[in-house]
Automatic annotation (TrEMBL), chain A:
It is found in: Cell membrane. This is ABC transporter permease. The lineage of its organism: Bacteria, Bacillati, Actinomycetota, Actinomycetes, Kitasatosporales. PANTHER family: BLL4140 PROTEIN (PTHR43227), DIACETYLCHITOBIOSE UPTAKE SYSTEM PERMEASE PROTEIN DASB (PTHR43227:SF8). Residues 65-279 form the ABC transmembrane type-1 domain. It comes from the Bacteria. It comes from Streptomyces asoensis.
UniProtKB/TrEMBL annotation, chain B:
Belongs to the binding-protein-dependent transport system permease family. It is a multi-pass membrane protein. Pfam families: BPD_transp_1 (PF00528). The keyword Cell membrane applies. The lineage of its organism: Bacteria, Bacillati, Actinomycetota, Actinomycetes, Kitasatosporales. Its main location: membrane. Keywords: Cell membrane, Membrane, Transmembrane, Transmembrane helix, Transport. This is ABC transporter permease.
Amino acid sequence: MNRQRAAGPLFVAPFMVLFLLLFLAPLGYAAYLSLFQERLIGGTAFVGLDNYTQALSDPQFLHGIGRVALFFVIQVPVMLLLALAFALALDSGLLRLARVVRLGIFVPYAVPSVVAALMWGYLYGPDFGPFAQLGRSLSLPVPDFLGDGWMLASLANIVTWEFVGYNMIILYAALRTVPEELYEAAAVDGAGAWRIAWSIKLPALRPALMLTLLFSVIGSFQLFNEPKLLMTIAPDVISSSYTANLYAYTLAFTGQQVNYAATVSFLLGLVIVIASYAVLLTANRRRTP
Amino acid sequence: MTTTTPTATTAGPVRTVPAATPARPRRGARRSTPLTIAMLAVLAYFLLPLFWLLIASTKSTQDLFNSFGLWFSHAPQFLTNVRQTFTQDDGVFVHWLLNTVLYAGVSAVGAALLAAAGGYGFAKFRFRGDRISFNLVLGAVMVPTTALAIPTYLLFAEAGLVNTPWAVVLPSLVNPFGLYLMRIYAQDAVPDSVLEAARIDGAGEARIFFRIALRLLAPGLVTVLLFTLVATWNNYFLPLIMLNDPDLYPVTVGLSSWAAQAQNGGAGASSDMLALVVTGSLVSIVPLVVAFLLLQRYWQSGLAAGGVKQ
């Protein structure tokens, strides 16, 4: 028993050591750095929470957060509803070629977001993008996908394309674990397909939906790859502070404002944790009124 | 997620989802043609960009501008493009591919083993501080990795690790969600009775782990491995900030640097850069897509384990 007591910590030690060094230490370091400011004269000075007050009234930071919040509020419901619809369609058993459809929808997940953003960027293109080409040859107006008014929607489309399949598989896998007897019992009671979906399948999907929602919060708020890639095609539309994460990157690597960048990263992490908790709490309250 | 979700229930038995089973054959259920057609339309949307990429990789940069995007041009030159992609800048693209394989492979194997040992330790042993340590890891699932990346960069810069492969591999080794998955997996996949029996036979704990537990954990291990592999293969932010020597780039950062060149340097039909970006993109996604098709059984059961249990 003694030997056993010693073994537990030894098994978790390698992970926990790296976790401390590579997870908690950077977090602590960011917190520490965020309390200092580099001054032209006098070097680095302790400034308390000055960086935070600066960030919280910094329009570039606030716009970045606002933009990803808007993105989250619109893109995530669309993506999750689509994923849910596809998962239910696959699970219904009414589909021919179900395997092909499932794989086809999932395949974009295996495509790096860099490649996804590049491909869609070229597809959106006003010169040789096929949509623009088709529009020209049919004399139909094609929206300026890379223009100011459309950019957020274009980014949302890329992210949706990448992750619908991933979310669909999580939901579909959860559906497959519903015991067959439940359906049989419901059928005996005269429940139709819609009724079964509403009363049996959706409740069974709750934990899986929570998981996908949580991952989506984390993903949306740290949006970076797609806007960074499209920035090279549409530099006038996507500024270097388009999303909060892009802003932190710009501050650290082009502005050399290390302390402020750490503040922005730290705040962004805080926003994500708060948003995640808010989502979890709301979802939980709705279940047990 | 025990701490983060108040809805948490204790984990039931892990149900590995049989991905290979066909959709539920329900009595009296007929295949629906309208639904099938609707889903095929959906499928077209998801495959359109990949179809475009396939077509585009057969074109010269000039034809990319001058021919219809969704069909072949008069002078397909796929092999020329591939050859140019691989020989551009003294074959730097080959470096990128090998770097990606190296970073993703080492990270995935390392992360999976660390998560397996940790998950097993948390699932099967009680020790001082086990609960608080595990909750700390669980909470970390919510901390965004990209928000962590900049402070990590600053720390690594002080330690002199920036612009080395370590800078990309080390942070990828810690996968809190992987540890969480391995813990719930280990709880059921490794029965206590088996451990007790081995102990009575006099086997040491390390031996029990490597000889018995690891084998029972194999399916869970493969899932964590696969997902870390995809995550690191596709990673962009971390290598982008950590590396500045093109010879060390993974393929994602390399392609984005080419894309930037195509846009700024030789914009227009005169440069060959665009064709290289397109062909390089195609070449870079083939291995992962193939791997996913071959390993469907694993990724599906892995996603199931994460989605069913909280």
